[in-house]
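Consider the following input, taken from an annotated entry for peptide-methionine (R)-S-oxide reductase (Gelidibacter pelagius).
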Amino acid sequence: MKTLPLILLLSLVFSCNSSAQKKDKATQKTKEFKVSKTDAEWKAKLTAEQYHVLRQAGTERAFSSPLNDNHEVGTYVCAACKTPLYKSEHKFDSGTGWPSFDRVIEGNVAFSTDKKLGYMRNEEHCATCGGHLGHVFDDGPRKTTGKRHCINGAALEFVPSNK
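Applying the prediction step yields:
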């Protein structure tokens, strides 16, 4: 009589490990980007903080980036591959401690879903090299797009406009 519950328990455990739940190798392929480097090449090219943010999807400490308070006219580019990502005219002070923009330069930013914190967030990547930039939220300026692209300053470099 004691063996019946044991058999049922074991069959339940093994049935939860079906082939449908195993990851398919074809779906694990990573997206190919125009700019692609080895891990060692990225480490040699980027600072430790840039590597942590861009290649390991890290987050810099709030209010640590000088770009958060930058008010010059120009373009924010990817620190890894120099792709133009955001225009200064779309930057605003969100009070969050990270550079924030209400829109991207179309075609240069890619989006995915991030579930690392236990809930879904819209993650932003450089469309050219795949570097992690930050996340987009729906609490931006209502007079424009309503979006807040909350971006790590370490993922960006600023290129001033020629006046």
